[in-house]
């Protein structure tokens, strides 16, 4: 049986979920917007801190977030001004607690990338989606990340690599997404694959990114960095955030599947 807690296997830490809490539908998954309608019911798989789930209320009639970390269920449910149409509950991506054909839309952003058994989860997502509905999946492709100037690239890339070492996170999940969907039984003629880019470039974007990840690195042991190694990475993040020529580019795979 795959581990539901593969991402938070060392225990929940809010400094980790805080690095995800800036995300909304428009800034994280805009590719889904053309398919949504105000009559639909949407399941957000691996809803995390729930900011995307909350924003989905602007596009559909009902949103259910499901998450295998109870602390995140509670955190998401405590968001200010949470619409009544948005609820959160505990549940596994490998055994979604819903009947077949329960949702018009099923969504997972930056979730499949971390799973031990991604194909099993993709099958479950299709199971709970109604015929004629849509499954939306977005995964980052960490191996294609660009950090500039080059003098920061090695340290900051190594920080990410050390974080995912010995974990189920795939560094090439974005490019694997289509293949994984086909392995899960998705029909190629009903599948649309695209890609998009996050570009962290402005002063505000660089500083927010660096602040979030410096906090995450200092408050958790997930990277296995300590002492001088850790200080070097923190210094690189801070210098990168102040460098006017600096930027980071993250490529993502995006999948739309018509059930």
From TrEMBL:
Keyword Methyltransferase in annotation: yes
Matches recorded under Pfam families: Methyltransf_11
InterPro entries (UniProt xref): Diverse_substrate_MTase, Methyltransf_11, SAM-dependent_MTases_sf
Domain spans labelled Methyltransferase type: 43-137
Methyltransferase as UniProt keyword: yes
Domain of life, source organism: Eukaryota
GO molecular function, one term: S-adenosylmethionine-dependent methyltransferase activity
Single Gene Ontology BP annotation: methylation
Record keywords, A-Z: Methyltransferase, Transferase
Family: Belongs to the methyltransferase superfamily.
Name the record gives this protein: Methyltransferase type 11 domain-containing protein
Organism: Meyerozyma guilliermondii (strain ATCC 6260 / CBS 566 / DSM 6381 / JCM 1539 / NBRC 10279 / NRRL Y-324) (Yeast)
